[in-house]
């Protein structure tokens, strides 16, 4: 029975990927994190459903995040640059930072930073247009033990994570989102960046399961970076020592670097590559 199930999976995914996923499936069943039978997991996986949606979780650094369709599954390349950012910048509880995460999805970026940075050193806020994402990010904050912001005195010594459902591209942002309180020391974002024309090149596990709003960044893929550059260029949105950290798609790094430089506020830029040698993150410092 087990042998037949594995053969079915390997026929679909190739032997190497099937071996990896077979282990994750069995680990999830053994640790009781998945209530589904192995047979059911393999059946759904062979229909193209991402394993993370079937099992309901995805490790992200030391965190184990909940994932639910159609919210984007946090990717290893994002995990890599977020850990690198946590080492490149070290906020302290003496002068805590304020961080805005645009298009927060599962909340993976601010939650990991809250987990890695010293307690009381950062207050983070995630905005997202999707109510599914906002709910999931709040559930993940609860699971990770990161409290929402409040005036409570003890929270001043804790890292916090708040969320706001809002359309970042609306001309009324951030004025109509009352909980968003600029200026920010750090802006992070892994925005939708796939150009429309690349829709047909996406694997089925992405195009049929993940929210198109999480994927497509307008005709050129750069729509959100243009809006972020306008936001950064506005008076009073960022502190004079602010940092912008933006994940980019393949081949977009130079254009995004140029966009944030033209704000006139960003004076130093860097491009970080991911573990696969692809230019993945543009860092801008004021
Ligand atoms: C590529 S996903 C990134 C999610 C998460 N930050 C991550 O790295 O896994 C982009 C996110 O932007 C959100 N989004 C799309 N359009 C938006 C808009 N106009 N305003 C705010 N959020 C938006 C999507 O709902 C999605 O959660």
Automatic annotation (TrEMBL):
**This protein's GO CC annotations:** mitochondrion
Gene Ontology MF, one: protein methyltransferase activity
Give the GO terms filed under biological process for this record: methylation
Matching InterPro entries:
HemK-like, N5-glutamine_MTase, SAM-dependent_MTases_sf
Keywords on record: Methyltransferase, S-adenosyl-L-methionine, Transferase
Q: Does the keyword Transferase apply?
A: yes
UniProt xrefs under SUPFAM superfamilies: S-adenosyl-L-methionine-dependent methyltransferases
- The protein in question is named S-adenosyl-L-methionine-dependent methyltransferase
| Ranges annotated as spanning the membrane | none
Instruction: Report if keyword Methyltransferase is assigned.
Output: yes
């Amino acid at each position: 029975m087990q042998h037949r199930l594995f053969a079915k999976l390997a026929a679909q995914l190739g032997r190497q990927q099937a071996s990896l996923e077979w282990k994750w499936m069995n680990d999830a069943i053994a640790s009781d994190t998945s209530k589904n039978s192995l047979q059911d997991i393999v059946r759904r996986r062979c229909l193209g459903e991402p394993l993370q949606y079937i099992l309901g979780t995805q490790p992200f650094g030391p965190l184990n995040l909940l994932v639910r369709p159609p919210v984007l599954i946090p990717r290893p390349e994002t995990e890599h640059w977020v850990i690198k950012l946590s080492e490149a910048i070290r906020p302290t509880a003496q002068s805590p930072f304020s961080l805005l995460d645009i298009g927060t999805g599962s909340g993976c970026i601010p939650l990991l930073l809250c987990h890695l940075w010293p307690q009381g050193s950062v207050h983070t806020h995630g905005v997202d247009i999707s109510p599914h994402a906002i709910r999931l990010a709040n559930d993940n904050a609860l699971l990770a033990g990161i409290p929402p912001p409040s005036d409570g005195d003890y929270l001043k010594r804790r890292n916090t994570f708040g969320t706001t459902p809002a359309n970042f591209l609306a001309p009324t942002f951030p004025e109509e989102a009352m909980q968003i309180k600029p200026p920010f020391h750090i802006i992070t974002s892994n925005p939708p960046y796939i150009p429309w024309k690349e829709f047909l090149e996406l694997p089925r596990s992405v195009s049929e399961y993940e929210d198109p709003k999480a994927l497509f960044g307008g005709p050129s893929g750069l729509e959100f970076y243009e809006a972020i550059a306008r936001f950064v260029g506005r008076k009073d949105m960022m502190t004079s020592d602010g940092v912008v950290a933006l994940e980019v798609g393949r081949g977009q790094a130079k254009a995004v670097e140029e966009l944030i430089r033209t704000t006139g506020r960003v004076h130093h830029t860097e491009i970080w590559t991911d573990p696969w040698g692809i230019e993945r993150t543009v860092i801008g410092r004021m």
